[in-house]
Every structure is written in structure tokens, then in C-alpha cells.
Specification:
The complex is a heterodimer of chains A (about 110) and B (about 110). Chain A is mainly beta. Chain A is about 0% helix and about 60% strand. Chain A is built from no helices and 11 strands. Chain A starts with a strand and ends with a strand. Chain B contains no helices and 11 strands. In chain B, the strands form 2 sheets. In chain B, strands 2, 4, 5, 6, 9, 10 and 11 form a 7-stranded mixed β-sheet that branches. A 4-stranded antiparallel β-sheet of chain B has the order 1-3-8-7, with no helix packed on it. In chain B, a hairpin with a 7-residue loop joins β9 (about 85-95) and β10. Chain B starts with a strand and ends with a strand. The chains are: A mainly beta (about 110), B mainly beta (about 110).
């Protein structure tokens, strides 16, 4: 079945440093979604990418969808303490209604 | 709008007991899903539904049942609770395949 892997599992950065998390699927995805979960909270939808090679930006966050639609990345420029949380990617395999999540990357930011 | 409402927020069960986790959404979303979250394992899909009367299994369906009699409600039933079902359970809904999911605040379940 479909598997979605994320690396790294955990990253601790100094405030102002950049951060990147990578998402890799075992199968081709029809879309990729990114979510953020604050400690003790629930996942919150950030963005969706659908097209091969698509790049989207939200302020300091840049999201990319790979050309083969099997991988994605989230890059945060100049991290802030408000960026703390776990970032999840999730995707639908082609012709599937199941939204499968990656294992997440936990980001800690030192002030 | 309330969004996605889950009850209860916390529950302790004894092994072998059954219970139903409630989930309701007021956004008229067709898609609803149940996930469990365990440390270091992300969110795993238990069951999902693409409309009233339609349900299907996710990645980890064993030990759980669902039904979808209305668009608004999607309860998750634990048939005979086991310690391995200790987890945080999230219900989520979406208006379609290419839309983001809105999550409830979760139910923290402990089985002793």
C-alpha cells in the first residue's frame, strides 16, 4: 500500500536559521497537502499542491511538489519561535479517496 | 461555525469495554475520516467516508467500526477495547478530494 515518509523526524534550530522538511511517497500522488500541528493541538491545513513541479509560497514558507509527483518539500526561511510544531505532509494516491499522512517532522526553535 | 466537534475529549476504558467516539461537522462536508495518532507514527487512517451511507477501510481498521447515516455525523465504535488502542483520535472533514481537511480537537483515549 501507499507509504509516505518524512525526514528528518526531528530538528532543533536557532531562531533565524532556515528549516526544510522532505516528504517522499512510494507511489505517484494526485496531490500533496501540508499541515501544522502545534504541541497539544490538532493538525491545521496549510496548503495543497496539485501540479507537477508546482511551487507555492506563504510568507516565509515555500512548498514544492516534485516533477514525478512522488516527493515534496517545505522550506521555512528565518525561523521564528511561532514556527514551533510538527509539520505533516499528506497525499492521495492516484484514484484513491484515502488521505495518507507522513510521520511528520517536529521543529523546535531556540530563541 | 463550530467546525468539527469531537466528544468526549478524554476517556479511560477497561480492556474489553466498548464505546463510541462522536464526531459531528456543520460545514456540509461530504468527506470525513478518522485518524489515530501515536508518538513517532504520525496520523494513521482508520476509516473514511465520501458521503452519507458510504464508508471504507483505511490503513488500520481492525477493532473499529463506523457508520455514516447523515452528512453531519461520523461516529467511531471500538468493539472491545485493547491497550493497543490507547491513542489520540482525530476526526476530520473536507468538502472534496482536492480540499484541505478540517480537524476536530481530538479524543485522548486510554485503555487499561
Amino acid at each position: 500500500g501507499q507509504q509516505v515518509m518524512q525526514i528528518p523526524q526531528y530538528q532543533h534550530v536557532q531562531e533565524g536559521e532556515d528549516f526544510t522538511t522532505y516528504c517522499n511517497s512510494s507511489t505517484t500522488l494526485s496531490n500533496i497537502q501540508w499541515y501544522k500541528q502545534r504541541p497539544g493541538g490538532h493538525p491545521v491545513f496549510l496548503i495543497q499542491l496539485v501540479k507537477s513541479g508546482e511551487v507555492k509560497k506563504q510568507k516565509r514558507l515555500t512548498f514544492q511538489f516534485g516533477e514525478a509527483k512522488k516527493n515534496s518539500s517545505l522550506h521555512i526561511t528565518a525561523t521564528q519561535t511561532t514556527d514551533v510544531g510538527t509539520y505533516f505532509c499528506a497525499g492521495h494516491e492516484d484514484s484513491s479517496y484515502k488521505l495518507i499522512f507522513g510521520s511528520g517532522t517536529r521543529l523546535l526553535v531556540r530563541p | 461555525n463550530a467546525g468539527v466537534t469531537q466528544t468526549p475529549k478524554f476517556q479511560v476504558l477497561k480492556t474489553g469495554q466498548s464505546m463510541t467516539l462522536q464526531c459531528a461537522q456543520d460545514m456540509n462536508h461530504e468527506y470525513m475520516s478518522w485518524y489515530r495518532q501515536d508518538p513517532g507514527m504520525g496520523l494513521r487512517l482508520i476509516h473514511y467516508s465520501v458521503g452519507a451511507g458510504i464508508t471504507d477501510q483505511g490503513e488500520v481498521p481492525n477493532g473499529y467500526n463506523v457508520s455514516r447515516s447523515t452528512t453531519e455525523d461520523f461516529p467511531l465504535r471500538l468493539l472491545s477495547a485493547a491497550p493497543s488502542q490507547t491513542s489520540v483520535y482525530f476526526c476530520a472533514s473536507s468538502s472534496g478530494l482536492f480540499y484541505g481537511y478540517t480537524f476536530g480537537s481530538g479524543t485522548r483515549l486510554t485503555v487499561v
